[in-house]
From TrEMBL:
Pfam families per record: ABC_tran
Keyword Nucleotide-binding attributed: yes
Lineage of producing organism: Bacteria, Pseudomonadati, Pseudomonadota, Alphaproteobacteria, Rhodobacterales
Keyword DNA repair: no
Record-stated family: Belongs to the ABC transporter superfamily.
Protein name, as recorded: ABC transporter ATP-binding protein
Keywords: Amino-acid transport, ATP-binding, Nucleotide-binding, Transport
Amino acid sequence: MSDAILTLAGVHTDIAQYHILHGVDLMVPRGGVTMLLGRNGVGKTTTLRTIMGLWKARAGRVTFDGHDITAAPVPARARAGIGYVPEDMGVFTDLTVEENMVLAAASGPLDPARRDRIFTAFPPLKTFWKSEAGNLSGGQKQMLSIARAMAEDRKLYLIDEPTKGLAPAIVSTMAGALRELKAQGATILMVEQNFAVARALGDHAAVMDDGRIVWTGTMAELAGDATLQERLMGLSMEAH
C-alpha cells in the first residue's frame, strides 16, 4: 500500500455502555478512494465519527498526515484538513445555500473559482443559491452536504453513505461529482452500500465485521470475487 495519510491502530470506541469498535486497524493511502464496506451495524459510521473526533477512542491510536490526533478536538482535526460528510447531511436548514457554504469556508470568503466548480458539479445549488436549505429535496441537501466539505481544500474527505435513499438520477450526479473530486487528487474514505457506486469509484477497499477490519485490498479484487464478497459480507455485489 502506498503512503498512508491516515492510520488507525488498535482503535476501540465505546458509545454509552456499548463497545462498538474492537481494535480497528486501518490504513488509508494518500490519493484515491478507499471504500469502507460491511453489513449494517458493524461499526462503519462509528469509525468515521472516531476519526473526526465526534466519538473518542478509548484505546488505540489515530494518526493523520504523520501526526497523532487521537486526543485532538474536532476543530483541530478540521483545521488539519479533514472534511466530514455525515449520513444525516448536517446542513443548516434555516440558512440559505450560500450561507451554508460561507460557514463551511472557515478560512475566509468562498473562492469564486471553487464556487463555480461546485456549481458545475451540483447545478441545483446554483439554482437555489439564495434559497433556504430547508426547501431543498433530500438529494439536493446531500449535494449541499458534500459541497460544504468541498468549500476548502481538504487532505481527507470522510463521506458516509452519500447515495443512501436517493433516486438513480441523483445517484448518477453524486457519483460524477465524487469522481471529479477524486480526479483532482483528493483522498476519500467513504462508506457506501450501493455496490455499483463503490465498484465505480473505489480504488481500495476495507471490509468491517463486528467492529473490526477483516479484509483489505483493492476494490477491483473484491468486486471481481463473488465468493469473497459472500464470505465477507454475506452477499454478492452482482445482486446489488
